[in-house]
Amino acid sequence: MPGRRRRTDSTRRKRRGNSISIGRVFATTLFSLATTSVQAEVDGPSGDVVLSELSVTGTGPAVERAGGPVAGYRATRSATATRTDTPLRDTPQSVQVVPRDVLVDQQDIRLGDALQNVSSVQPGGTIQGRSDTFIIRGFRTQTYAIDGVLLNQAGNFSTVTRDLADVERIEVLKGPASVLYGRGEPGGLINIVTRQPTLAPSGDINLQGGSFGFRRVQGSVSSAIEGVEGLAGRLSFAGQSDPTFRNFGDRNNSRTFVAPAFTWNPSPDTRVSFVGEFTRLDSQYDEGLVARNGGVPLDNISRYYGELFSRYNGTSNFGLLKVEHDLDQNITLREVLNAQWGGFNFLATRATGLASRNTLVSRRETAGYSTYASVDSQTEIVAKFDLLGFRHTVLAGIEYSNGYRHSYTTQSTNYPSVNFLNPVPGSAIVGLQFQSDLKQKNELNGLYVQDQIDLGLGLQMLVGVRYDTGTQYYFSRIPTSRTIPPEQQLSGTSPRVGLVYRPVDPLTFYASYTTSFKPQTANILNVTNPPPETGELYEIGSRLDLTPDLTLSAAAFRITRNNVSGTDPNNSLYSVITGQQRSEGVEADLAGQILPGWKVIGAVSFLDARITKDQVYPVGNRLPGAPSFSGSIWSTYAFQEGFLRGWNVGAGITYVGRRTGDLNNSYTVGGYARLDAAVFYDFDEHARFSINLRNLTDRRYIEQPFSPTDNLPGAPFSVLATITARL
Questions:
Q1: Over the range 649-679, which residues count as b (16 or more CB within 10 Å of their CB) and which as e?
Q2: 249-274 pLDDT, tens digit each
């Protein structure tokens, strides 16, 4: 028996050595192929991208820090809610984190797919295939933050769909976040934390192919930069082509993404970092399906009511520089500078309604052109000290935000209708007439202070307040009227109070109150000075470590939103101030490791989101896109030993209940349950092959309702194959 054991161990070592050798050869070959591929995909035939050879693999930090990598599915620290490196259990507000391991195992391509792992978050519409919007605790948001800086300060939505190539983690702060971020939605804030450079050489690259002609290459390489002590760089990139299941003929959607990043530590007390993101999106202008008779027919989910010439082209550019210096071990100075610019243009046919007893879809031909640019500066100090027997962590800051350019010009004219059941494209482009001209700019100064106080006996308190003041210029012109309002003076105060109680180490309770403030950016017809939108949150919650590696969190909340803008029921080109809305509910999230190799992330939400005061829409109507019940669970298992070692399996289910499609509640879309699965094999730490299966039952459903003429159906059964190499 001892002899047999020695032979078995020898055989295992031999097999292991062969596996490592195969993996390394496989990874090196794949990097070479993918480098050539990304040149063609991202830079075009004339592009010149040089990637240095990598030969050392890093394993990541042993101790988690806010903004850094997460081991597995469970994060323990975050800075999104406090702008300090704070344990999640000491944060008196719901914060959920989707780590990179989840994105990799699920092979999430869209930001909306990743966020369906979070309770009370739903995809809210793509704005005709142009961008990402989300429903957080019942309220729609059309923007998000990158490394703590809000996107598009001058407008109200991102001009491209988000790429995930350089994402380290996605964090969702539930409820108002104005105390630290200024303008914002009351439902919550999505903060995308990017991957930071490493001094140790590392890299990863994916080649993907899937159903409906989907193709993608994605990668990231990082290393120290020779010649400068403490300087490291990372380059993340992606290019994809996606014809989709929709009936666009031979047209497809494409996106290219490049994100350089640098970090430099000139001394032990000073840290400098930079991240840039450059995205181009070229997509079919797609409004999805049209509602009829109170619902959205699903007999043909590829049905397309536009013309094949309908196209959208968008760009988004982002640059962020952060400098931190420690005066001593208790005082840190921080400066963050950000610049954003971009725009879009489109020519499309748009559905406007139904005609001829709901047998025809009326349409207009529309063209639009928009540009934006903004700058942002945050100057902060973080100080830790003892006062009156209590430990304090004080954050004080000044933020200057200038959205100095946002312009949007449209042209439009009537266009031939198409049959509702059998739309046949082929009508020619017609002449356009001026429709509207919108110009906006805003300039805000924010002063904020926050104190995290350790009161002892398991009690902690967080208090904070922010005061914003500034101006907003708003110009709107239509053919029948011209309004040039003066610059509007803006001001708002956003307080926050939170209390955390930890009776025993694994269990935490918290309660919080906070508010939001947001200048109106919607196109309000014939209103010269629209009042800013405000929000108010009451929340109680708890976090429980079921095991050292598995955490369950829960919250109950009530959010009131005032001065809300919504689509004008008499003119869809403009918005109206609709009054007051309220959302209340309970939610729970689970994340971590159940047993060695067995990981899980799950969420469940019960929500009641309605209009509570209004002079345009009926009081009591449900808010669009917000289901009463929703939930998801995803779990993977990595076989730990035996001949199955290296194999991983995963499965998950997403359930979303019935939703209304507009504030009038004129139609609803049905609930659905979608089953997904995955299987992947790790050759070793250098190579993986995975197959991800989505919508196994081929369920037909509306994933993202947006308006009666804009409802995006979910994709049918699809397969995605991925080859991953790491060095």
A1: ebbbbbebbebbbbbbbebbbebbebbbebe
A2: 778 899 999 999 999 999 999 999 99
Alpha carbon distance 510, 90 (integer Å): 9
Task: Determine the residue type at 189.
Answer: L
Say if residue 442 is exposed, middle or buried (CB neighbours under 10 Å; 0-12, 13-18, 19+).
buried
Positions in the chain whose pLDDT score sits under 70? 1-62, 153-156, 476-486, 521-523, 525-529, 572-573
Which residues, 6 or more positions from 364, have their beta carbon under 8 angstroms from its beta carbon? 349, 350, 352, 412, 413, 414, 415
Neighbours of 44 (CB within 10 A): 10
Q: Is 127 helix (H, G, I), strand (E, B) or coil?
A: coil
Under 8 Å between Cβ of 662 and 624 = yes
H or E element, residue 721 = strand 718-726
Q: In sequence order, which residues have a C-beta less than 8 Å from that of residue 520 and are 6 or more positions away?
A: 472, 530, 531, 532, 533, 563, 565, 577
pLDDT of residue 292: 97
Cβ–Cβ under 8 Å, residues 77 and 64 = yes
- Collapse the DSSP code of 89 into the 3-class scheme (helix H, G, I; strand E, B; otherwise coil) and give the result: helix
Going 101 to 107 to 109 to 114, the CA torsion angle's sign is negative
Domains annotated on the chain, with CATH: 77-368+400-726 (2.40.170.20)
Which of 318, 377, 315 lies closest to 346, judged by CA?
Answer: 315
Contacts of 259 (CB under 8 A, 6+ apart): 165, 166, 194, 235, 236, 237, 275, 276, 277, 278
Distance CA(572)–CA(521), nearest Å, equals: 16
- The whole-angstrom separation of Cα 260 and Cα 27 is 22
Residue 315 to residue 371: CA distance in whole angstroms: 9
**This model's pTM is above 0.85:** yes
Question: How far is 106 from 120, CA to CA, in rounded Å?
Answer: 20
- Cα gap 137→626, rounded to integer Å: 8
pLDDT of residue 51: 36
Q: Which of 331, 433, 342, 304 is nearest to 392 (CA)?
A: 331
Q: Tell me if 678 sits within 8 A of 647, measured CB to CB.
A: no
| DSSP letter, residue 245 | S
HEC states along 246-312?
CCCCCCCEEEEEEEEEEEEEEECCEEEEEEEEEEEEEEECCCEECCECCECCCCCCCCCCCCCCCEE
d(CA 532, CA 526): 16
Q: Is 132 helix (H, G, I), strand (E, B) or coil?
A: coil
